[in-house]
Amino acid sequence: MMPRLYALRLDSSLRLRGFSLNSVQKTDMPIPSREPFQIGSMKFQILDRRLMGQTTAHIPYGVISITGREQLHPCIPASACCLGVLRIKFDDIQENILGMTLFSEAHAHEIIDFYDEMRAKGARLMIINCEQGRCRSAAIGAALAEMERATSWFDKRFEPNVHVRRVMGDAVQAALISQYRRFAPTLPYS
Q1: How far does CA 167 lie from the centroid of its chain?
Q2: How far is CA 34 from each of CA 9, 124, 138, 168, 170, rounded to the nearest angstrom?
Q3: Which residues, at least 6 apart from 11, have a Cβ–Cβ distance to it below 8 Å?
Q4: 51: Cβ–Cβ under 8 A, 6 or more apart, which residues?
Q5: In degrees rounded to 5, what are phi and psi of residue 117?
Q6: For the chain, which residues make up each domain, given as ranges?
Q7: E strand intervals along 10-48
Q8: How does pLDDT run across 85-96, given as a tens digit for each residue?
Q9: What phi, psi does 61 have (nearest 5°)?
């Protein structure tokens, strides 16, 4: 049986409008597994800030570290197996909120380019972390898993940020179509 975590959900717009922090809802959410998931030739590991600082891998890997606009990135332990780290900042929001950074297509393309670079260097593991290891990192992991031709199994184990998932999904689909066009033979009737 999977352990349960009692967490508080707070709509970030409540904080910005000056409502009391007593306006929170208690939810009963399972803690997702922190073990790497094998998808094709790549493993994906979704972590929170605390676990990122304690993680080391013994196979070639890349790290995508996500924080909010005003947060510091977690300490990433030095390792000879680490092929690269992408540090990216955007907030865990679904729509534009004044003073916060919404995930954009530019972020998505930066992540996809980094992922392609890590695969070209021989990475066999992608470690993706955000503050709680549940929403932003899961959305990015789910979209990158699609590049390995996986289905949306990530969405069932985590709570991906819907906006990040949609923007990343669109960017991944465009990248896959571009790859297909590059390698597909030209048909006489196209």
Answers
A1: 12
A2: 21, 17, 11, 22, 26
A3: none
A4: 34, 129, 133
A5: -65, -45
A6: 1-31, 32-183
A7: 25-30, 37-39, 42-47
A8: 999 999 999 999
A9: -145, 165
Helix (H, G, I), strand (E, B) or coil at 15: helix
List pLDDT tens digits, range 45-77.
988 888 887 777 889 999 999 998 888 887 888
Yes or no: say if 154 and 141 are a contact pair by the CB < 8 Å rule: yes
Record the tokens describing residue 65, joined without a space.
């570290």
CATH code of the domain occupying 32-183: 3.90.190.10
| pLDDT classification of 155: cutoffs 50, 70, 90 | low
The set of residues, in sequence order, having a beta carbon less than 8 Å from that of 182 and lying 6+ positions away, is none
Query: 61 versus 152: which is more confidently predicted?
Result: 61
Which of 30, 36, 33, 39 has the alpha carbon at shortest distance from 56? 36
Separation between Cα atoms, residue 127 and residue 43, nearest integer Å: 8
Backbone φ, ψ for residue 73 (5° rounding): -75, 150
Tokens coding 51: 């676990």
Instruction: Indicate the residue type of 104.
Output: S
Name the pLDDT band for 170 (thresholds 50, 70, 90).
Answer: very high
